[in-house]
């Protein structure tokens, strides 16, 4: 007798992504809240201080930049998108993020679910462009979005 395995989404960073460790996120059934994809913490939201990025959840943490400082992706929101399972499929939905959620370079309308499939490229945010207004302490890494190959 085998024990059923809950649905899982595997997110593997692409070369152009803000760096993050590979994620293996097990999703609970429809009776549970969706899993949030977003920043581990946010400097202006103290209630998010308890969130911790792990390879098994949807939170993305800081990484050490080429300048040896810890940085987070600017284009990623604290509650950027959410994923869940229903009807034997895994769905994603943008949660009115500032810089958008994209599947295979197609921007999702906020609040409109989209089924994911293996091989999809998920992008949370956009590549931000450095300008004369960009503070000097902002690294190139921080300007990158989260980009991941989806494996179900």
Automatic annotation (TrEMBL):
Pfam family, one: FHA
Domain FHA: start-end pairs: 58-108
InterPro entries the UniProt entry points to: FHA_dom, SMAD_FHA_dom_sf
Domain of life: Eukaryota
Protein name: FHA domain-containing protein
Species this chain originates from: Dendrothele bispora (strain CBS 962.96)
